[in-house]
Amino acid sequence: HRCSLPRVTVGPNMASARELWQGEHTLVCLLQGMHGTRTTVQLKNEDTATGVIETVDPLMNIFLQDVQFTKFMKRPVALDSMFISGRSIRTVEIPDTVHVEQTIRERLRMTHDARKTYKRKAKDQA
Predict the structure, then answer these.
(1) Rounded Cα gap, residues 19 and 26, in angstroms
(2) What does the pLDDT read at residue 35?
(3) Residue 51 CA to chain centroid, in angstroms?
(4) From the first residue on, what is the mean pLDDT of each consecutive set of 10 residues in the chain (126 residues)?
(5) Which of 6, 7, 96, 109 registers the highest number of CB atoms within 10 A of its CB?
């Protein structure tokens, strides 16, 4: 069984400074904090994907697990996983069970804690 805590990547393999800024200063941090939550993503071409959020990067690219994908005016198809480009997303439904403010605060705290840990380790190695 997978750990239900979202990963925060800070270090040499992390996103660019602009992507990090977007992740902390836009509502992408809300989606990142919804790791493990079942939601529906509506795409710009009217297709929809309902699944469990595995990861969301700062550019709002979403990786879903256990997906029901429905092409516009077609029957749903079950998929194990699906990658959705942030550029193709129209809306992401926020379930009523998600406490928006609390989720954002927790995600920002995790990001800042991870950044402090990375800086401390880099300083210790210098």
Answers:
(1) 10
(2) 93
(3) 12
(4) 43 60 81 95 97 93 97 95 96 96 90 75 72
(5) 6
- Strands 89-92, 76-84: pairing kind: unpaired
Which element (helix H / strand E) includes 40? strand 38-43
pLDDT recorded at residue 79: 97
What distance in Å separates the CA atoms of residue 45 and residue 47, rounded to the nearest whole number?
6
The side-by-side arrangement of strands in the sheet containing 89-92 is 76-84, 62-70, 48-56, 38-43, 89-92
Residue type, 42: Q
Q: What is the pLDDT of residues 1-25, one digit of tens each?
A: 333 444 445 444 456 667 777 777 7
Per the CB < 8 A criterion, the answer to whether 51 and 62 are in contact is: no
Distance of alpha carbon 123 from alpha carbon 10, whole angstroms = 14
Residue 41: how many CB atoms within 10 A of its CB?
24
b/e code 55-72 from CB counts within 10 Å (16+ = b): bbbbbbbbbbbebbbbee
Query: What one-character-per-residue DSSP string does 78-111 give?
Result: EEEEEEE-GGGEEEE---TTS-HHHHHHHHHHHH
